[in-house]
Amino acid sequence: MTDAILRRPKEAILTPIARRTPRRVHPLGLTMAGLVPGLGAALAAATGHSFLAVGLWLLNRLIDGLDGTLARQQGRQSVLGGYVDLLADFVVYAAVPVGLAVHHDSRAAWVAVCVLLASFYVNTISWSYLSAIAERRRAVADDRLTSIELPGGLVEGAETVVFFTAMLLLPTWTPVLCWVMAVAVAVTILQRLAWAVRAL
Q1: Which domain holds residue 64?
Q2: What is the mean pLDDT of residues 93-118?
């Protein structure tokens, strides 16, 4: 919902960092390095270290934002880089809720996490296919800041950061927050379906 609004300020913050980053730091290597704190956040969540989990999660998100900015600054943008970046995101998006469910260790938590991950699964199909169609029809702007474009929705990257941060800070609320996020993701799926009905 807010990703398009936040892209320019994010770039303004990350561009000076990217400019000071040595050229030997490759954006794809940075993407892969970001998996370490991302999976670390899941492990910290599973073992009940909430503040460590939040710190590692936010570090992962910082690296996730920086790798794309670095690629643009270095002229190293690539389809492979965009693909690996997205793949790494979804590895972490799956691992963190599972880590929380391990810590909560209740049927309610596991059911809520399963529903949330199922909503992610359906949502991924809802936007990835639309993105492919949009690419084919050249229906997106050429000055985009990500490697793919898709119709906006209630839950995007920024909202995911907020929900996951709240879950990591308040692990006892994991079932409730997972259900709330799953409903919000369902609304996002319906928004994209409505977009498809109008545009395709």
Answers
A1: 3-199
A2: 97
